[in-house]
Specification:
Length: 131
């Protein structure tokens, strides 16, 4: 049986791994997850994001980041779900914790952060928020 929401699974794996202070977390790979991981890496929330070939199938491996023993990602929340999609216009893009966090959007220009979406002047589906 397939997974109904792979992005929620990804975010839950990150949250759970950080609660038990894991250095790395592995998850099934997809193009969308790779794009989200690259944004998390570019914004400084994770150290490394790479696709690793295992004996059976490739996995996406994230190296988690900690500061003074606490996870850098304090909160990672799924916004748009399969049962309730959440779309935002270009002038409705949220500022997460007054700019300290980011929102990740799926737009016509690809999967991008809220800062990039404002620069490009595009809205889209609000996938998740990270702080």
């Amino acid at each position: 049986m397939g997974m109904t929401d792979p992005i929620s699974d990804m975010l839950s794996r990150i949250r759970n791994a950080q609660m038990v202070r894991k250095d790395q977390v592995d998850m099934p790979v997809s193009k969308m997850k790779i794009q989200i991981a690259e944004i998390l890496k570019a914004e400084g929330f994770v150290d490394k994001a790479e696709v690793v070939a295992t004996e059976t199938w490739p996995v996406l491996r994230l190296d988690l980041k900690y500061r003074s023993g606490r996870p850098v990602i304090e909160e990672i929340k799924r916004r748009s779900r399969p049962g309730r999609r959440e779309y935002v216009a270009k002038d409705e893009i949220p500022r997460v914790y007054q700019g300290l966090g980011i929102a990740i959007l799926s737009t016509s220009k690809g999967v991008i952060s809220n800062r990039q979406a404002r620069k490009l002047g595009v809205g889209g589906e609000l996938l998740c928020t990270v702080f």
